[in-house]
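Our collaborator T.R. sent over the components below with a one-line note: 'Predict the complex.' Nothing else. No constraints on interfaces, no templates requested, no preferences about which chain binds where. So this is a plain run: every listed entity goes in together, and whatever single assembly comes back becomes the starting point for the next discussion.
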Amino acid sequence: MLLDNISSPADLKNLSFDQLVSLAGEIREGLFNRLTKKGGHFGPNFGFVEATIALHFVFDSPKDKIVFDVSHQCYPHKMLTGRAYGFFDETQFSKISGYSNPDESEHDFFKVGHTSTAVSLACGLAKARDLKCQNENIIAVLGDGSLSGGEALEALDFAGEQNSNFIVVLNDNDMSIAENHGGIYKNLKELRESNGKCASNIFKSFGLDYIYVDKGNDIPSLIEAFQKVKNIDHPIVVHINTLKGCGYKPAEENKELWHWTAPFNRQTAERPVSNAENYNSMTAEFLLKKMAADSTVAFVCPAVPANFGFTKQNREKAGKQFIDTGIAEEHAIALVSAMAKKGTKPVFGTHSSFIQRTYDQLSQDLCINKNPATLLVNTASVWGMNDITHLGIFDIPLMSNIPELVYLAPTNCEEYFAMLDWSIEQNKFPVAIRMPCNGIIHTTEPVQKDYSDLNKYKITQNGSKIAILALGDFFQLGEKTADYIEQQSGQKPTLINPRYITGLDKELLTELKKTHEKIITLEDGILDGGFGQKIASFYGSSPVKVYNFGLKKEFLDRYNAQEVLKNNHLTPEQIWQDIKN
Amino acid sequence: MLLDNISSPADLKNLSFDQLVSLAGEIREGLFNRLTKKGGHFGPNFGFVEATIALHFVFDSPKDKIVFDVSHQCYPHKMLTGRAYGFFDETQFSKISGYSNPDESEHDFFKVGHTSTAVSLACGLAKARDLKCQNENIIAVLGDGSLSGGEALEALDFAGEQNSNFIVVLNDNDMSIAENHGGIYKNLKELRESNGKCASNIFKSFGLDYIYVDKGNDIPSLIEAFQKVKNIDHPIVVHINTLKGCGYKPAEENKELWHWTAPFNRQTAERPVSNAENYNSMTAEFLLKKMAADSTVAFVCPAVPANFGFTKQNREKAGKQFIDTGIAEEHAIALVSAMAKKGTKPVFGTHSSFIQRTYDQLSQDLCINKNPATLLVNTASVWGMNDITHLGIFDIPLMSNIPELVYLAPTNCEEYFAMLDWSIEQNKFPVAIRMPCNGIIHTTEPVQKDYSDLNKYKITQNGSKIAILALGDFFQLGEKTADYIEQQSGQKPTLINPRYITGLDKELLTELKKTHEKIITLEDGILDGGFGQKIASFYGSSPVKVYNFGLKKEFLDRYNAQEVLKNNHLTPEQIWQDIKN
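Returned assembly:
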């Protein structure tokens, strides 16, 4: 195998074009091997094999620096930079991450997993190069989907004013995760259709030079283009037209499905399908019913529709009541705020990790204006996504300290949908809901329908001495802990479902003082700036002892949830151990 | 006066063009009256008088909806919508805010003060209109400076795909607060110079229709253009070329100085100049010295250079070591992260209120990558800016709960510069510094130079029973409180300067338990998610009592700092009263 003799990109330089084409085949075999067995990003990597080979053939990494946007297309790059073992050797899969990672290689410069950051980061490398009077090439690799994100557009504007070497490779496969949305994409289409020659050119209007490569999966064409721009003395965009999923027919034909894949059968393209209930499809089903009954209900989603059950079919059902903003989280929050202001009923949804983009919009556009939009926060949990760039454990400190926001933590399926229904129909508060992430847990107890009497916690079990405030996804841990403590101590603890992350039930907390000596708080997120610390502060001057349980403030990476829970003393046994003395 | 008969825009409709011109004169008189006496945004309002008149002449507010970006150009709009008293009657100045405000008028739709939000908010109104099958005009008014902000660009992209009425008025005065930065501005210049006819057109490349009005301060030209686009069935940009500060020569000639003004003398254009020391100019002076000694030191600032002492003269002195990203806070954080990665020494600076834009970049681009950039956070205090949209009291919960960030709170001038110097020269941590905001306080005590031994608090007075942890700007309140308590109780309390917002000195806190019964924490920001609650959590299970003092989680507006402090029990007397029992 050619790859056996490539330990760094320097080893590519002497290969013939034919050998480079064979190399592309080998890289795809590596991708198949890892992705069929472990899963991961499929379409982006298959589409960018040739471009990666051409980049490393022309440029001199790591002196020349390639920064990947999102970096979910960097698997071929990993194979050419000494990490082929992570693809061909199943025992070593876990040694490499699914994203660029400077801990793995000197050819990676940043840990990246969010979109739209590469141009900014590359601008910083270029600025530093210029301040140090050095002269390497700086290359940002950006997908067309990422182009709509504010940070990418800000950076292109900045780049357009610079006067030194800077190369943006726009990997245009005409897809985001789902289809693209936004006016920019009409321009990209025009550019593709005119072979880069149409008058209107977004990159030129940002002040950047521009060339177009129609055959974005053809190594010689790409090499020619990259050689043309190597050592250029000003910023330029190399717009390459690639095929997402290139080299695997099912993926070329259904790009959305094959953006990311679980392990699958290469021959049949089949993946294990789960028919189990899940919150994504249940949420879509619920919202579609609301939409059918009320034409002012709308679901607004920045580019992750399927993660809320809005598959292509459901998007079509929703019609104009489904709005994909493209990757544009900031815009989406302001959008729903204004929609709510004008009396419609917008529901916004994204992941805990991506809502991080919107603090200012949550505060300024939404909460200062107190507009009654609903926000769904998905995978907000230790059981959410577990890459360092996709953690769902920071949204409580991020969001719950913003005035006027009502942030709700449902503890089971029925409570989640009751809260969602209430939020859509009320017109007083901006409301966010932390979607459950610990499996579908049903209750047969009656569930409250109206949550407008803010910050009323619910006692689900009356006891004494010890009270457990078990928030959201950790309510079941609270139940188990209550049982365990009763078993061990013979004393029944009080169990409370706080429901509201954003406020204290001071009346109930004051009442608890009379008959309780110890308060345990449990929350599915980091402790710093979170829920439990507010309870500790409330009881700070009283004799009541407070024990906050949750996660340590740290960037976890590719963790095992059970281990993390144990390390943070989040089992009933450990909790009892910690508090009993 | 014509204005006397205008209680709403409807009253404008029957005026002749000549009368409209007179009206513009009257509006400028109102602006002069308020701004000479009270100060406020000057250039944006003077430049937008004619456009405001034309908008209200053509469109039917409040049915047609005008959304102002930043809304620092909405004073003329306020005068035409029943609020002229707020400009002509000094006793009523304080009844109106300096920004759009739905509490004041049905012609204002949002409380807005940050840039780049208008297109998004207007898109939301348009979407809601379409869902409700209504048909009014939706107009976003956007300044050229705001155009570079990610949220605005995301929104333009979104708007470019819509198929219904939507009008963006681009108020192009060729200035941000300071000069514009970014490639987009080359295109705006081309458009102005070609009378809107050049081939490259950023708005068309975003999918929007476009017309250009060269005489942006000429009422008939503006009316003609607005009439052309009224009731249009698709999105369009009306690009108007206005003169910032139009109607006052000194402001036309020095646009940066007259963006905002303190009260001034209309005849002489003089303002009271303070020669007192201030942190802005001292910071610039310090950084310029560092830059002169080391060509890899750079100051990166998103469009607020003067607020860090980088006046035009100092920007020229700094040369390529000063980088204005334009309004692009997200990009700026990623930029400095990458600059630090490549071994240069970037310092970023903006206001507490604007750093809110960057949570995701702080977390992903900077802290996950642990790059040693320095961030300066200005007006982060109850003594900072006091409009609801510009509060500086939320940055501690926002920033201090991000892993890996070292957030420092200096307590005096010497400590601030020592921290800044250390941060620039170290290469281990991303560091943010909360710039002092309570006046220039000097110390004669020796100040620590090295802060790399993280989270070591400093005992500045040894005492017993009571310990006061007084963070940053509230350290002097801590000193006063310590004195007062000693006076009242005869017992000297311990006084501690925590210095580090982002971590606990567990050793010291544990030691305190032995000889102290009560811990007081003081912080200049909201309590929720902040510093004190972490201390309360630390002591939660111990007999030590903790009393957290700081601000309530709320959106304050145009407040008096002394009153707010009192309402939050932040005087030595109140603190003693609260803790003595």
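Summary for T.R.: The domain at 279-434 of chain A is CATH 3.40.50.970 (Rossmann fold).
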